[in-house]
Amino acid sequence: MNVDLSEAKWFKSRRSGGTKECVEVAFLGGGRVGVRDSKNPTGPALVFTAAEWDTFTGSTSGGRSDRS
């Protein structure tokens, strides 16, 4: 999927602590969500559908992605 990210407004979590080792997120048109590495803002980005993003954030906030 090719998505134009030139107008994306990227942001980091308030919990990132201000370090450069974070991911940035942008809410895109069509309900899509972009994710990129803050250390490489001109590099590649992942793009998720709204349903994929909801599944991801739901599993991480519920602790289901913890590696035990």
From TrEMBL:
Matching InterPro entries: DUF397 (IPR007278)
Q: Where is the DUF397 domain?
A: 8-58
Q: Which domain of life is it from?
A: Bacteria
Q: What is this protein called?
A: DUF397 domain-containing protein
